[in-house]
Structures are given as C-alpha cells and as structure tokens.
Design brief:
By secondary structure, the protein is an all-alpha fold. The protein has a single domain (3-93), classed as Non-ribosomal Peptide Synthetase Peptidyl Carrier Protein, Chain A (Orthogonal Bundle), CATH 1.10.1200. Helix content is 55%, strand content 0%. It contains 4 helices and no strands. It has helices at residues 3-20, 43-61, 70-73, 83-93. Helix 1 crosses helix 2 and helix 1 (3-20) packs across helix 4. The longest helix has 19 residues, at 43-61. The termini are close together.
Length: 94
C-alpha cells in the first residue's frame, strides 16, 4: 500500500469522525493536526480515530497493525501530531 493510499485512509476516517460532530470536514490533508495545539480532535476523538484507522488498514491490507503501542509512545515526536506523521508511522509498520 502506498503512502498516498495510507493518507487517504486516514483522511477518510478523520472525515467520518468529524462529520459525526460539528468539526470541519473539508480541507483535510497531510498537515491536518490530530493532536496538540490547534488539533481537530480531543483525546477521545484521537483514540477513536486510531481504532478506526487500525480497522480500515486491516480491511485494506489484510494485516493487523497496532498504532498505539510502546514504540509509538516512546518516540521523541509523536506519530499522532498530523495526518502526515501518522501516515509515515504506518509505513514503518507495513
């Protein structure tokens, strides 16, 4: 699976999640902030997104991945900051 396809999986999951609330659904891209200052999601939303992306990636690739593990939590820069950083992290797992 290409990085661009992974970005699309994340954007689609994020878009669905934001549509359930009152969040902005248009203009989502690699720079969209998932965590931290000016993030689109609160902590519960981030956990929901992680679970959704894990499931969608397994559906797309047939391979189960775990995003919120010790490896992710121990990185100097969180892989959950932006759509792009999450996509980069997923590439390393596949």
């Amino acid at each position: 699976m290409t990085r661009d396809a992974i970005v699309q999986v994340i954007v689609d999951a994020l878009s669905e999640l934001l549509a359930e609330g009152d969040g902005p659904v248009s203009g989502l891209n690699e720079e969209s902030k998932l965590f931290g200052k000016e993030a689109l999601l609160d902590s519960v939303g981030l956990v929901t997104l992680i679970v959704d992306v894990e499931q969608n990636m397994e559906d797309a690739t047939g391979k189960a991945i775990v995003l919120a593990d010790e490896r992710a939590m121990s990185q100097r820069q969180s892989p959950f900051l932006t759509v792009g950083s999450l996509a980069d992290y997923i590439v390393t797992l596949l």
